Amino acid sequence: MRYESPATTKEAVALLAKEKGEAHVLAGGTDLLVRMKSGLTEPALVVDIKRIPDMTTIKTTQSGFKIGAAVSGAQLSDHKALCKAWPGVVEATNLIGSDQIQGRATMVGNLCNASPAADSVPAMIAAGAKAVIVGKGKRRTVPVEKVVTGPGTTSLKRGEVIEAITLPKPAKRTGDAYLRFTPRTEMDIAVVGVGISLSIERGVVKKAKVCLGAVAPTAIVVPGAARALVGSKLDDKALDKLAAACSRACNPIDDKRGTAAYRTRVAGVLARRAAKIAYQRAGGAA
Amino acid sequence: MAHDNSYTGQKFEVVGNRFLRPDGVDKVTGRARYGADANAPGQLVGLVLRSPHAHAIIKKIDTSRAEKMPGVKAVITSEDLPDLTGGDAGMAQTLENCMARGRAMYDGHAVAAVAAVDRQTAKKALQAIKVTYKKLPHVTDVDEAMKPNAPVLHPWLFTAGVDPKPEKPSNVISRTQMGHGDPEAGFAEADVIVEKSYKTEQTHQGYIEPHACLASVTPDGQAELWVTTQGPFTYRSVCATLLGLDIAKLKVTSSEIGGGFGGKTHVWVEPLALALSRKANRPVKLVMTRDEVFRATGPTASTSIDVKIGAKKNGTITGATLELRYQGGAFVGMPWAQLACMTGFACYDIKNQRSVGWDVVVNRPKVAAYRAPSAPMAAYAVESTLDMVAEEIGMDPVNLRLKNVAKEGAQAPYGPIYGPIGIEAALKAVKKHPHMKAKLKKGQGRGVACGFWFNIGGQTCVDLNIGTDGTVNLAVGTVDVGGARASMGMIAAEELGISYDDIKVVVADTASLGHNDTTEGSRGTFSSGMATIFAARDAINVLKERAAKMLDVPVEDIAWEKGEAKAVGKRYSNLPKLSLKEIARKSPNTGGPIAGHNEVVADGAGMGFAAHIVDVEVDEETGLSKILRYTVVQDAGKAIHPDYVEGQMQGAAVQGIGWALNEEYVYGKDGRLENPGFLDYRIPVASDLPFIDTKILEIPNPNHPYGIRGVGETSIVPPLGAIGNAIANATGVRMTHAPMSPVRVLDALDEAAGMDQKVSAG
Amino acid sequence: MSDAVLVTTKVNGDVVEYACPTDEVLLDSLRDRVGLTGVKEGCGTGDCGACSVTIDGQLVCACLVLGVEADGREIGTVEGMAEEGELHPLQQKFIEHAALQCGICTPGFLVAAKALLDKNPKPSENEIRYALAGNLCRCTGYDKIIRAVQDAAKDMRKSRKR
Questions:
Q1: Which of A44, B132, B541, C161 is the most buried (most CB within 10 A)?
Q2: CATH number of the domain within which C107 lies
Q3: Residue C50: which CATH number?
Q4: What CATH number did the domain enclosing A195 receive?
């Protein structure tokens, strides 16, 4: 295995594009190294992006935030402005593993690992996050929901890397939240995850986006769930409709972590709870 | 010299205090050396190839490519471990469990092993071994395995203990029955009868340190094994038998042990490491991965249990029966169901009782002891059913238990009459505990349950050597799994009458001390404590002889008090007292080294009893249970070092909590273990728990000079029942399948609400 | 065979050089090449915290870091906690509170607890429990560990005021 730690995105892209064998980007490594240990992957090349300055910093821009691909969960939680703007996204990322894992794990790694149960992904999607993808001589920005195509697969082409995630500046009176269900309080993989972001005016939900994790091959946006919220003051009827829409949208599997029936049910339960938190964060009366 | 082991009510100066453990600094600075922390010149890395199939014939193992790889120094299969067990069926099963012989019996069963110059090379060598399997039908569930059409694991296995003798082989090893009185007559007298069936899933001890060893065999038939183990002497005799070595020529050194809980009482990879070393003629270090630990060491049994309890309206239990089906993995090992029969009703004085146990084989790893092995599952069933009886007759569940509690003179399920025991006192302490009066909110519930464990004694040997400066080395042969060196040092200091700081306790290797049984059955402090007392008393006799010489008085006139020899009698009033240090300093000239030794079969281990209180909050929308408050009351006989007694109570309770809520082996339809890691085998983390309150009771064991009872195991027994009872109290729903995971609780809630569809249905 | 590289790093303040295969994890490099066996392996997959170390002050699991990544960084392990022969207050309190039984998880707990107290000198019980959730202990039920950390934090705050 070749190990490279380039200083620029351009170099990283060139290394990855040139490699004929299996090549992997090493950001936090919390998924990659586990797969290497178990023999699931034997890369010919690993490109460590943690020495690329652009990839290791959070920038505040006019339009919002640009979070480098190698930024760890611990860095996110230390960034006050980001925590204030998108608490749901930061909390979701911080739910991944322990403090030790947080010292390494990144949102982009969580995204590119393409597990249906990735915690940060539904929160990013709900918040309208975009991925800045860099290839050889090309650069494109796509909504996060366009990145993962199925369990373990992404739409990234050979030689392409995600350089950063952008998050918009939240509109006034916007709140987001992410909740997941796990049997333990920590150190678990989501059985179900729900990310919700919404904006309100005079207590009425004007805009909403709801995204579920661990209930389908990829994180799924549920427009019906958003519609259930829009126009409401988050009354019980709206929450019932939200829960029903979420449960309806589920297309889960049975596995060691949970059954399809359980996931379907709890998706609705968590959606209600997450919506209430997001609403409160948007300034709505609880 | 024979010593009396009776309890004397001696007053203590040292015992009962909280001294700092002698191995503390090493352990907080990273200096302590565990199984994987030793190295030897020229050592190789050993790795094991394991079966991916639950049950398969091994048609061929082609090791030729691996053997030719540069850096590979040895490749072994079962052919390198010829059967030297000489008709010892149990030992033969151990051998076959260590390395498959023609058939892989479970997912993870060792098939071959390699030793190479480094990890990378060893890994490549494993990949180069080609095994041709022919898959066979498998069975992993205990109830399924007992069915007539189940795939039979061993064609030679005919059920023992049934009449008439079976004509066909089956997966049922044996049927055991015990009890007394006439349960049917008892049921006829009952006002209410509750019958319920339970299941418990397989759990693992989950020690954080994987099995690890460093083996070195030389061509002249000598060998050394550095290993993390609870039983260095047992490992020595088993490995010597399996490898054909002389017992005295195999030196086993137990490293610091990173948790065992019963799982390090049996050999797993150690014979393989020795065989690899013998073949390679180099030392071999073999460290299991966590995945291997889950798949191929010994978890506890999964079970299926039926309980029937009949009682009068006043609470008197008139009859009770238990039917216990325990799977012990793919091989015939300990009779786990038989052990369960002995423990199920042990907390209660039930005149008419019967327990029937069925030991069963399935395609899972060979079961090992796990802290009070077999007892927690039986207690889950009994303690849950008792609460249901209490509800039926409208009686407080603690009062129901007190009404039937076993006291001195009652008969244990397995026959003997109890001496002084602590379960009544524990229940009374529970009743009085402020925890029982604390207010509960909606969605919260409280449960109480009891637990019993035998505790054992066994063969024990210690050496106590006094240096010329008066400091003392104490060598024990039971390993220190949680502070035992501190306790042994305190006992020696107590007896000798010297400072705790003047004593250094070591765990001896097998070449330096006589045989000691494995540190299991909560026997460490009881047995080595007893041997230490006796060895110290022997040393005191020598000290007195030397003092007599120094003072020139008859030894009969010398008394030993508070670390000093004193000539007793008026005519000696002008003679000085001689301290241990003074006598030691002169020892080269008064007869040489001063020592005390003791070899004993420590008899009369006092039984352990505990009662637990738990408050639980159940999220009825997700089925998640949260532990809000937990209290352990347990009889320790005498707490030598209260910190480490509390530690055993807390640790055992939390293992029970993990078992009750989340821990379980998940097998797929293909018979493979799906969760062999700490991510998906969910042991409790710090944020899952509250502080675990403890109350130590001290009801002396009459058969120990200090009154000690074992304390390590008992408190893993009550948590399943206590938590089940708390969930029932919170929700009105009775859980009958452990772990009582969110999905199972939600199912039970749904069922109670009249819904048909199960969220657990796959 | 994997490519080997020469790594120059600082471990507990000392400059250390080792050559390791590129696919070797830092845990193995520290244990087998630097000789720091206080860094324990409990799982190798980041689920138990026994191999907790710091890289440039950041708490990580050494099993989820490549040995080559340490190049030019500063690594902290349990072996570096005691200074000038004096135990760190956390080390002292772990012994005093009997916060260890078998002790295999202890180095990881100490490194993680120190990382917590460096950042948050006055954590609540809940904060301690969550901060240490990545460190598994199978012996103690965590009770005495949490108490030891609380007590150490208290002492450290006092000595800071002085």
A1: B541
A2: 1.10.150.120
A3: 3.10.20.30
A4: 3.30.390.50
Query: Would you state the pLDDT for residue B209?
Result: 98
Chain C residues within 8 A of A101 when measuring between CB atoms: 46, 61, 64, 134
Tens-digit pLDDT profile for residues A163-205: 999 999 999 999 999 999 999 999 999 999 999 999 999 999 9
Mean pLDDT of B466-488: 96
Residue C56 in contact with partner chain A when CB distance is under 8 A: no
Domain holding B183, by residue range, is 138-416
Asked whether residue B551 is assigned to any structural domain, the reply reads yes
Cis peptide, bond prior to residue B739, ω within 30 of zero: yes
Inter-chain contact B28–C94, Cβ cutoff 8 Å? yes
User: What ipTM, to 2 d.p.?
Assistant: 0.98
Last residue of one domain, picked from the residues C80, C112, C130: C80
Angle between helices C143-161 and C89-96 (to 10 degrees): 140
Q: For chain C, what is the domain count? A: 2
- Residues C132 and C64 placed together within one structural domain of the fold: no
Report how far apart, in Å, the C-alpha atoms of B56 and of each of B92, B94, B328, C95, C117 are.
19, 19, 19, 50, 53
- Sign, Cα dihedral of B636, B642, B646, B652: negative
Looking at the 3D structure of chain A, how many domains does it have? 2
Rounded CA-CA distance B24/B480 in Å is: 12
The average confidence (pLDDT) of chain B is 97
Would you say B350 and B319 are in contact if contact means Cβ atoms under 8 Å apart?
yes
Q: For residue B372, give the nearest of B736, B659, B738, B664 by alpha carbon.
A: B659
- Residue B636 CA to its chain's centroid (Å): 17
**From first to last of its 286 residues, what are the pLDDT tens digits of chain A?**
999 999 999 999 999 999 999 999 999 999 999 999 998 999 999 999 999 999 999 999 999 999 999 999 999 999 999 999 999 999 999 999 999 999 999 999 999 999 999 999 999 999 999 999 999 889 999 999 999 999 999 999 989 999 999 999 999 999 999 999 999 999 999 999 999 999 999 999 999 999 999 999 999 999 999 999 999 999 999 999 999 999 999 999 999 999 999 999 999 999 999 999 999 999 988 6
Cα torsion B46, B52, B56, B61 to 10°: value is -40
pLDDT band at C3 (very low <50, low <70, confident <90, very high): confident
Q: Which domain holds residue A7?
A: 2-50+57-168
CB atoms within 10 A of CB B675: 18
pLDDT in tens, A257-283: 999 999 999 999 999 999 999 999 999
Note the pLDDT of residue C2.
59
- C115–chain A Cβ distance below 8 A for any pair: yes
Q: Are residues A189 and A158 located together in one domain of the fold? A: no
Q: How many CB atoms lie within 10 A of CB A21?
A: 10
Do B274 and B239 form a contact (C-beta atoms < 8 A)?
Answer: yes
My answer on whether B196 and B325 are in the same domain is: yes
Please say which residue of C53, C80, C107 terminates a domain: C80
B102 within domain boundaries: no
**Contacts across the B-C interface (CB distance below 8 Å):** 183
In the structure, what pLDDT confidence band is assigned to residue C1 with cuts at 50, 70 and 90? Answer: very low
Decide if A103 and C55 are in contact by the 8 Å CB cutoff.
yes
Q: Pseudo-torsion of CA A180, A185, A190, A194, nearest 10°?
A: 0
- For residue A44, tell me if it sits in a domain: yes
Domain that holds residue C143: 89-161
The chain A residues in contact with chain C (CB within 8 A) are 1-3, 5, 26, 28-30, 33-34, 36-38, 46, 48, 50, 72, 74, 97-101, 103-104, 185-187
The residues near B26 (Cβ < 8 Å, ≥ 6 apart) are B32
Residue B762, chain A, CB below 8 Å: the answer is: yes
